[in-house]
Amino acid sequence: MQVQTKTQGIVDVQDEHIVTVPSGLFGFEEYTDFALVESEYQPFVWLQSLQDKNLAFLLIDPFIICEDYEADIDDKALAAIGIQDPSDVIVLAVVTVPGDGRAVTANLQGPLVVNRRNRQCMQAILGDTKYTTKYSIIDALKRKEGN
To answer: Where are the alpha helices (DSSP H) in 1-147?
Structure first.
């Protein structure tokens, strides 16, 4: 499928990279159809809206930047997107890149959960307060390099 993107123009996206977010994302509930598009900067990926080419979210695998990350999500919530087996789960965190030079951060408190089997997605809110919506990616990578 050809997808018009915010950052890369028109790109080809395989069907297995098309995801549906039935309830939308918080603050963007009316947008439910997205494509996962490789970013020009690894290890990031774009969640590109199929309904509005100007709406895209930069994502990262939270386990890359926070090795002890745990997304404890209620089984009932996961059932809403058809999760039956933990191996079906892909967890991603939304990245914020401020235009004013402040830290690049990841929202570890509100991860996206994708069912790799049926490509349904949801945004969860974790009750664990040890995670923040502004987890510094640069600081995390520096800590990782120091080990």
So the answer is: 62-65, 75-79, 137-146
